[in-house]
Amino acid sequence: MEFSEVQVGDNKENKLQQVENPLVSQHKGRPETKRYKSSTEKKSRAKYTCKTCGQTGHNSARCQNR
Question: Secondary structure of the chain: what % helix, strand, coil (to 5)?
Answer without folding.
Answer: 10, 5, 90
